[in-house]
Specification:
Blueprint (H helix, E strand, L loop, with lengths): L1 H30 E8 L8 E7 L6 E2 L7 E7 L2 E6 L9 E5 L7 E2 L4 E2 L5 E3 L4 E8 L3 E9 L5 E3 L7 E7 L5 E7 L10 E6 L2 E6 L18 E5 L6 E7 L2 E7 L6 E3 L6 E7 L5 E7 L6 E7 L5 E3 L8 E8 L1
Antiparallel strand pairs: 1-2, 1-25, 2-3, 4-5, 5-6, 6-7, 8-10, 9-10, 10-11, 11-12, 13-14, 14-15, 15-16, 17-18, 18-19, 19-20, 21-22, 22-23, 23-24
């Protein structure tokens, strides 16, 4: 009888734990929406717009709706950041922000940006971006104040290419893609790690040069994202004929393929609580791109988009 009572209590406790987990997951899902980028070739040859939808794929809306090249790479809570050439010449990018509905559009800074991912720290007050000044200073990192627009340059090797920076969860380090000579087309980028205040750079990835995709166009190691609660970094690499999401620990000692989907998986983002992964994927011929959401705990995946648009890329989580 005591054993049966003990089993009963255990089952009740397990049920409560599962119930709490379900409630927590549901609350997490309601806390975020997803912004992503679409191409509208019918308007003009390079009209990129920003879409927003709920995490179940409902309520899709074009929130940029402007004949510019607009692309979102990052959000902090309900501040959605994007690059745009709307006030300048073609593909001359500057940083803007808006709310999740596309309202309150504001230019952040007069620093011209390269087309690159970005990241924030200090509750969204500071952002690391890949910027340029004139023709001489290209693909360098800058720390930018998202309130005042002031910025300071933190890399100075103008022969190199620094791109796709991402802060560590504590904001003290950055992981990024680096190419020693940006003009040398025979070399490629790898992931590196360094302190925000400079210091030594540590190489994290080593692309397998004997891979069948070694000579193909595409990422070797790019668009790195740091998992907010677990100690690993994810990135995109084209290997074995398709783009896939890989992972590496910050010390570089462990590397693995995060997803083993038959399709090509690419640009991605982690929800701030670490419970969700959203990414764009396509058939290997890249004829149709979709946005897919994955529950990190259960590994269940759900396609959120249809074929209304061919190019649906670069999803980010944004608070409601």
């Amino acid at each position: 009888m005591e054993k049966l009572l003990g089993i009963g209590v255990l089952l009740i406790l397990m049920g409560c734990a599962n119930s709490k987990s379900s409630v927590k997951q549901a609350a997490s899902e309601k806390s975020y929406s997803i912004a992503y980028n679409i191409h509208l070739p019918d308007k003009n040859k390079d009209d990129w717009e920003i879409m927003r939808m709920n995490m179940d794929g409902s309520d899709k809306k074009n929130i940029s709706n402007h004949p510019d090249v607009a692309w979102t790479y990052h959000a902090y809570q309900n501040r959605l950041f994007f690059i745009s050439d709307r006030d300048t010449s073609y593909r001359c990018f500057f940083l803007y922000e808006c709310d999740p509905q596309g309202n309150k559009v504001k230019k952040i800074s007069d620093l011209r940006l390269e087309d690159s991912w970005m990241s924030t720290r200090n509750k969204g007050k500071e952002m690391i971006v890949t910027g340029r000044i004139g023709k001489a200073i290209r693909y360098q990192f800058f720390i930018l104040n998202t309130s005042t627009g002031a910025y300071r340059q933190i890399t100075t090797d103008t022969a190199a290419m620094y791109s796709d920076p991402c802060f560590s969860p504590d904001g003290k380090k950055i992981v990024f893609s680096y190419k020693k000579n940006r003009r040398d087309k025979s070399t490629h980028e790898e992931l590196y790690l360094m302190n925000v205040d400079g210091g030594p750079m540590t190489q994290l990835t080593y692309y397998p040069e004997d891979n069948p995709s070694a000579k193909d166009y595409g990422y070797r190691a790019g668009s790195a994202r740091w998992h907010p609660t677990e100690n690993f970094i994810t990135y995109v690499s084209k290997q074995d004929g398709r783009n896939s999401i890989f992972a590496v620990t910050p010390d570089g000692k462990k590397q693995w393929k995060l997803l083993d989907n038959p399709d090509s998986d690419g640009w991605h983002d982690w929800s701030p609580d670490g419970q969700w992964l959203v990414f764009n994927n396509s058939d290997n011929a890249e004829t149709q791109y979709h946005i897919t959401l994955m529950n990190w705990k259960t590994k269940a995946q759900k396609q959120l988009t249809d074929t209304t648009y061919k190019s649906q890329l670069g999803p980010v989580f944004v608070g409601k």
